[in-house]
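Work through what follows:
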Amino acid sequence: MNAEEIKKFNKANEVVHKVEDQWHYPIMMKAGYKSHTKEGVGFVRSYKYVKGDHEVTCVTGASSDHWNDNKGGFGYWASLESNLK
């Protein structure tokens, strides 16, 4: 990459992404979780959701659409909703 391309890449990696615009937000809201993280920055972002003592972190961007459950479990986007039941 030349200097101009690096500058454009770095600028793109500074974009702020609201939690409401992410794939996991409607799933987590439907399941009764509250978003602890309101915004994420960059190509890969993580958002934490809380419901009582249960925490789920969802990661999104640049082929990183997965979730981690503090009570055990990990998966990719398609399995999030079934994990919450």
Summary: The chain has one domain: 15-84. The radius of gyration is 15 Å. The longest helix spans residues 3-12. Residues 15-84 form one domain.
